[in-house]
Amino acid sequence: MTRTSRLSYFSLYLLWILFFVITPVALIVYQSFFNLNHQFTLQNYRDYLSSSVYLRMTLNSFIFAFLITLLTLLISYPAAYYLTRLKHRQLWILLIILPTWINLLLKAYAFIGIFSQAGSVNHFLTFIGIGPQQILFTNTSFVLVAAYIQIPFMILPIYNSLVDIDPAIINASHDLGANNVQTLWRVIIPMSANGVRSGVQSVFIPSLSLFMITRLIGGNRVITLGTAIEEHFLTTMNWGMGSTIGVVLIIIMFITMMLTASRRKGGVKR
């Protein structure tokens, strides 16, 4: 590839980043400094930092994102570890990826049918004698559905990091007297830490700003920053406050990426 062709490809990449990443973020930051009367002001940030409602929404977003990420990790790590020991691994990976091809709205409506009073879950509870329960429009149903949707994005990076581990290292651990649990805890988990970090980033960051699932599965009982942004942009038309919350989310996302980024020590990535 010639220097000119490399520059052309690089320029196309820069244009894409400029128009579809930097420009939208700059517009959000710019809009956050205007009120409903299109006057320049810092009142949006003062209102956000002084309002117990917005601070409680921020805390709720953190709690829900943490629970979704934790549940997803607890399910995904054993699943990814088991996948590395299967013969037809690519087929199983494909089956895990397939649900991501289905529209999110369709999956949400499917869970509405499953968790509703006349759904399959309540049919099963009635069959075993517990009786129908209010499952839909609860925090539990919201976390479960969000975790289900995010699972592929946690499994794939963990699976890739586990596959990259040299089997000779595992065998050496056993030869040195470590049992399966010790090998898992002291060798496999530390060596797959980068995959876990990538999975946490892929799940935690989007979970902070969920709004469609909060409406359809959680009803109006689950309030997060994502639903607040939707409310300000589509209902109250207060784009300045909605942009301010968006800026706060962007800052939180950058902090999350910095905290979960791979660290280098002595020139070697850990």
How much of the residues is beta strand, in percent?
A: under 5%
> How many β-strand stretches?
2
User: Largest sheet, if any?
Assistant: 2 strands, antiparallel
Radius of gyration: 23 Å
Query: Which structural class do you get from the secondary structure elements?
Result: mainly alpha
| Morphology call | globular
- Average pLDDT reading: 89
Taken in chain order, the helices and strands follow as HHHHHHHHHHHHHEE
Model regions low in confidence, pLDDT < 50 over at least 5 residues? 265-270
Report the end-to-end length measured between terminal Cα atoms.
33 Å
Number of helices: 13
If strands are numbered along the chain, what order do they take across the biggest sheet?
Answer: 1-2
Helix content: over 70%
Task: Explain what you see.
By secondary structure, this protein is mainly α. It has helices spanning 3-31, 43-50, 52-83, 89-97, 104-115, 120-127, 139-163, 167-175, 180-191, 193-208, 212-216, 225-234, 239-259, and strands spanning 264-265, 268-269. A two-stranded antiparallel ribbon has the order 1-2. Helix 12 runs antiparallel to helix 13. It starts with a helix and ends with a strand. 26% of the residues are buried.
